[in-house]
Write a structure and sequence with these properties.
The protein contains 5 helices and 2 strands, in the order αααααββ. It is mainly alpha-helical.
Length: about 110
Amino acid sequence: MGGGKKKQSLKQMTKPKTPKEEKHKDRKSGAPPAAKKSLGLTMPDLNSQKVMGELKGLKVLTPSVVASRFNIRLSLAKTFLKELEKRKMIEYVSGGKNLKIYKLSA
């Protein structure tokens, strides 16, 4: 079922062969990719008016929304929301094992 190697056409035979290593070196020699970003490792200040103002502007409070808004890791966003819940600043609305939805306390 495998068969042999495919016979190359004349055009493919006349093309100069470049090793794959050279192609990869060109990419690595440049600056690091712009899409790469580091996420924050510190929790936003719980007493800050700016942080609470941003939370009021959100329609839904979920860990993924908070993580993307404050540029922090998802695990840190979960602990941030749990801490806000302990302080009675937000209330748990619904959710299951994977998703928890909160709302701001009035």
